[in-house]
Structure formats: structure tokens, C-alpha cells
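User: What would this chain look like folded?
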Amino acid sequence: MAYKSILTVISGQDLENSALDGAVSLTQAQDGHLEILALGVDHSTPGYYYAGTNAMIEQATMERARQEADEIEAAVRAAMKTRQCRWASEAALAQIGTIQTLVGNRARFSDLVVLPKPYGEDKGVAEEAVMEAALFAGNVPVLVLPRQTELRRPEKVVIAWNQSAESLDAVRAAMPLLRQAAISNIVIIDPPRHGPDRSDPGGMLSQMLSRHGVRAEISVIAGTMPRTADVLARHCADQQADLLVMGAYGHSRFREAIMGGATRDMLEAAKIPVFMSH
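Assistant: Here's the prediction, encoded as C-alpha cells.
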């Protein structure tokens, strides 16, 4: 099992802020095919203009977004000329409200989506919307790469385990990477005293992983910091891990999906690649 169809989405002309290099490296390591979506985003919100000017302004902003998509794709094609992997690119246009549908439909037919961190001073609403679209509308695992990081083959992986369906789904989706790693560390923070595996926290997961050829160890730690994300980040640093695997959580009825608190906190704090699944 490997990731044969990998997607990355680029919504800005500065390719250094994208996950293109990391996506190329992973595609090469997996002997897969990379799909690159050059996304021009119309950030305007129709309905907030003076009467009679909506159509004209909307047309101008859409044209600007279309031109941006073409420029991003041209930059991608220039950058990919010397890359040794199978790839294809496509320019696409979306408004903020339609990113969910557009990216979700593309992501559905991928094994994995590789994206940059969606939060930071140089990030905007589009990056967050792309992330949510892949995870929740596309229902596909996402590998989030901090700037200037790559992941060809992880040596040590930390698995954030809380017995949830999301966590187990993330483990299953990350199996190709877990099998390549030298060791995987299952970390459990403050396990419930009355949980189903209270006598052996993480034991059943470790057994399942061992049957797939994954060498696993278990760490049970205390939540000594207010935010779970901070505890995880410190544990990853202590373990010198180069990948974190965790479930993604979303809650909303006002939007199709909004990152849960722990998920967003972890993505903001992450200094290593984060593999997420919902």
C-alpha cells in the first residue's frame, strides 16, 4: 500500500509558501503521481456593493482571480521542469464560498493531500478553507508541512491516541508511513480511568500495528499544560519525532466545517509535519 495519487493546492504565487517541494519529495518516495491545483481565489463577497455595481465589480474581481490562477500555474510549470516525478497541473478559479466544493471534489480522488500550514502571519482565509475542504468535504487524509520541511521517509513517528474514531482513522490512513518508520510512539495524555483499555492504555492499538509490521512503543503522560497541543508539541520535541499522526476534529452548523480547538492549536504550534484524518 502506498500513496499513488497525491494532491497539493497552491493559492499564492510565492511557491516558497506552498507545500510543492514537500509534495514532490513525497511523490518521488512513494513512486506516485502528483496533481497540482493552481487556485485563483476571488476574495470578494457578492452582495456588499451598491446597487447596480455588483455585476461589474464581481466581473473585475473574478478576472483578477483567473489571472492569478494562470500565473500560479505558469510558476508551477517552470518549477517542475527539472523535477523527476510524474505530475500534472490545473488552473482553477473559486470564490471563498465555493472552495469547499471545488477542492473537496478534487481531493476525493486522491490518496493524500499535501498542504502548507494554514495559519500564520502570511496566511489568510483561503488556506484555511482549502484545508477544511480536503479534510471534511474531500474526506481524505492531509499531510501538513511547516515551511521548509519535507517528509520522504519518517524515522520516528508520534501517534496522538485518545481512542476516538478520528484517531484510529488517522492511524489507518498513515499506515504506509508508519510501516516505513523505524519506530512509532503511541502517546496517551491522561487516559480515562474507566476507559475500555484502562488496564493497558494503547495496548490494542500497539497490537494492531505490530501485525502490520509497525514497531511501536507506548508513552502515557500527564497533561501538565493547559492546552493539549502544547503537551503534544513538547512530547514530539522530547521524542525527536519527525512526524505527528492525529485525528482532526470539526464542529459547525454555520459553515460546512470549522477546525476544532485542539486541531487548530496543533497546526499553529507544529514545527514538524502533521498527518491528519477525519
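Residues 54-80 form the longest helix (27 residues). If you want, I can go into more detail on any region.
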